[in-house]
Amino acid sequence: MITLDDIRAARARIAGGVRVTPMLQATLAREPIAPGAELWFKLECLQVTGSFKARGAMSKLRALPEEAVRRGLVTASGGNHGIAVAYAGMLAKVPTTIFVPVGVSPAKARKIESYGAKLVVGGASWFEANKDALALAATGPTYIHAFADEQVIAGQGTTALELVEQMPEIDMLVVAIGGGGLIAGMSLAAKALRPGIRVVGVQPTGAASMHDSLRAGRMVELDRVTTRVPTLAARRTEEVNFEIVRRNVDDIVLIEDDDMDAASRWLWREMNVAADPSGAATVAALMTGRIRPPAGARICALVCGAGAEGTQG
User: Fold this and answer.
1) Partners of 173 in the beta sheet?
2) Is the distance from CB of 22 to CB of 162 less than 8 angstroms?
3) Which of 68, 157, 269, 290 has the greatest number of CB atoms lying within 10 Å of its CB?
């Protein structure tokens, strides 16, 4: 099982390859979304590739043997992880192939290609794109899982190391969930550093795999995924993620896709932050009242991904 020491080792490993991202307090808002609480945003949307995924990709790349890197890289992604692995492949100067579902954001697809990776579009979801990625990996390239990999999870957990240093007295951490790599790493680190913290996950109703798994007490695979947000469209989590989340996450709330679009517009309108729908998921949970923080609580909501989608209007 991953430990705090593993996350600290990942932080040292990825140094120089990722940014320390800033915090922004939600003050002077015309439309406050957490009245009475002290709300901050951790802006991973300003990370080098546009999301926290750069942390996990760099952590995995720099943990690989040289021979494995030379074979090239391959992954499947809803968008952000693909950009991060493309970035890692560019730094390593090796061929990189990224499989994405047909619903991928065109802007994210262009960004993957801008890093020199080969983009392959196909399948209705990440789950289907991942089958094709695994088939290619069987021929030689090194596969990097989007969320169920210990080095990837440790890399994502470095976000919490930074956050707790920036906000030592944090009471509540709110994190979006797709496959569960981010919330696994962050919740493990946050609980180890600040045991009294409350960690709340946010997942779309159309891809509530982690939510349903925790409720059932075992991993659940969804019959179908209906969210239109591909970066959160995981049909199931994996055992490593499930076990960490089960031990460290206090609650998971569900939101609608339209809630994320509205939250993305709020972030742009009130905070001048351009976030994709997944990046705005934590804000959506606060806006809709799915999360009602107590008065005086010090809250950090992670804005995990950049994008102009949904910010207009």
Assistant:
1) 199, 300
2) no
3) 157
Q: Quote the tokens at residue 3.
A: 């430990």
Note whether residue 185 is domain-resident: yes
Domain boundary residue, one of 143, 170, 193: 143
200, 214 contact by CB (below 8 A):
no
Q: Which of 220, 251, 253, 249 shows the shortest CA–CA distance to 237?
A: 220
Site of tokens 């951790």: 42
Residues of the domain holding 83: 53-143
Q: Which residues contact 236 (CB under 8 A, 6 or more apart)?
A: 127, 209, 213, 219, 220, 221, 222
Q: 199 by DSSP, 3-state: which?
A: strand
185 and 262 co-located in one domain: yes
For residue 10, the SS3 value is helix
Task: Report pLDDT digits (tens) over 222-265.
Answer: 999 999 999 899 999 999 999 999 999 999 999 999 999 999 99
Name the token pair of 47.
Answer: 């990370």
The rounded distance, in Å, linking the Cα atoms of 31 and 1 is 42
Strands (DSSP E) found in the chain: 23-25, 38-43, 73-76, 96-100, 118-121, 142-143, 172-176, 198-204, 251-255, 298-303
Give the chain's domain count. 2
User: What pTM did the predictor assign?
Assistant: 0.95
Question: Taking a C-beta distance cutoff of 8 angstroms, is the pair 134, 88 a contact?
Answer: no
